[in-house]
Amino acid sequence: MKDSTVFVVDDDQDMRQSFKWLIESVGLPVEAFVSAEDFLAAYRDDRPGCLLLDVRMPGMGGLRLLERLRELGLCLPVIVITGHAEVWMAVQAMKAGAFDFLEKPVTHQQMLDRIQDALRQDRERRARAVECAAFRQRLALLTQREREVLDRMVRGEPSKAIALEFGLSERTIEKHRENLMHKMEARSLAQLIRGMVEFGREG
Questions:
Q1: 77 and 164 within one domain
Q2: Which residue from 31, 64, 157, 190 has the fewest beta carbons nearer than 10 Å?
Q3: How many H helices and E strands in the chain?
Q4: Residues 33, 7 contacting (CB under 8 angstroms)
Q5: pLDDT tens track for 122-150
C-alpha cells in the first residue's frame, strides 16, 4: 500500500507552513493546498492519508468541501479545524462525515495524535476494502450450484437437507461443499460464514 500523506487545505500561508513543519517533524509526507478547489483537482482516491481542513476560506469553504467529498464517494478521513467554532458548524461537519472537529488553539501533540488516529482509520478501511474485493472475486468463481449450496450452508442447513431440496445425493452435496471451500480459500466453515456475513452482500 502506498505511504499515507497528510493533505492540508488552508488559505492562510502561515498556517499551511506551520502545519507542514509540524507534520513533517514526525516523518509524515505533507501536501498543502491554498483552496478546496485546488485540492479537489489534485486528489485521487487511491492515495491513502487524511485531510486537515480549514473551515473558512474564499470560494468553496471547508464544510462544502467535506460535503463534496462525500458526494463523490471519497472516504478520506477529514479533521476540520477552525478558530471560529460554533455549535452548528461542528454538528454540520460531523453529519457530513468529518473524522473530528478541532477548535484552535490546539496543542501540537493533540493535533499529531488525531492525525495518527485518522491515518490508522484510513489504513484499516483500505485494508478491509482490499479484503472485500478479494473475497468477492473468489465468490465469482463458484458455479451456480456451488453458490446455492453455500447460501444454504450460511443459513445453517445440513448437507442432508440440502441434498433433499435439490434431489441430489448427500455425497454430491459434500463434493460441492469441498469444491466451494477450496475456491473460497476457507480454512473452516466459520471463516467462510464470517466472510459471507461481512463481504458477501451486494453493494
A1: no
A2: 190
A3: 9, 5
A4: yes
A5: 999 999 999 999 999 999 999 999 999 99
- Per the listing, cell 462525515 goes with 97
> What grid cell was written down for 136?
468477492
Verify that 123 and 33 share a domain, yes or no: yes
pTM metric for this prediction: 0.79
CB atoms within 10 A of CB 156: 8
Query: In this prediction, what percent of the chain has a pLDDT beyond 70?
Result: 96
- Residue 136 in any domain: the answer is no
How far the first Cα of the chain sits from its last, in Å, is 24
Q: What is the pLDDT of residue 85?
A: 64
Same-domain pairing of 88 and 166: no
Instruction: Give the model's pLDDT for residue 198.
Output: 87
- What gap in Å lies between CA 75 and CA 69, rounded to an integer? 7
Closest alpha carbon to 51 in 42, 149, 59, 105? 42
Whole-number pLDDT of residue 55: 85
Total count of domains within the chain: 2
Residue 3, pLDDT above cutoff 60: yes
Q: Are 8 and 42 in contact (CB under 8 A)?
A: no
d(CA 54, CA 66): 10
51, 55, 56, 59: CA torsion to nearest 10: 60
